[in-house]
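Sorry, explain these tokens?

___
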Amino acid sequence: MQVLTKRYPKNCLLTVMDRYSAAVRNMEQVVMIPSLLRDVQLSEHRGPAEPGTPDLYTYFTMLKTIRVDVDHGLLPREEWQAKVAGEADESENEAAEIEEAEDERASEELDLEAQFHLHFSSLHHILTHLTMKAQEVTRKYQEMTGQGL
């Protein structure tokens, strides 16, 4: 696994982002044949997978895509909305617009410091969770291929 070269406080967002990027880069280096991850579940139980449950390959591609956004920034809002609109139905768009309007109204009631803290802590939690998922995918691949940890 790659070692972090930058020194930030433990709970700094930059530390969490660096840790996530390093975990995903390590996953990409270890997983030489991503197609082996298809139809393999992340959970430990060996029973049949429930329909709609993501497999390791889905996690692998999702984690790589998110890392690109973390490392290089997000698409401009207009491009992101166009991308999302191309993938969703009109009914989903209408529901999303209604939910976004409700979120905007609710967020207007909060002060900026509270909004910042909410989003910051949520992002911190999500990145930490995604880092653990990347480490799990790497570990599972190593188990499948018989590689030593």
Remarks:
- Helices lie at 13-30, 56-72, 77-87, 90-109, 112-145.
- Residues 112-145 form the longest helix (34 residues).
- The chain is about 65% helix and 0% strand.
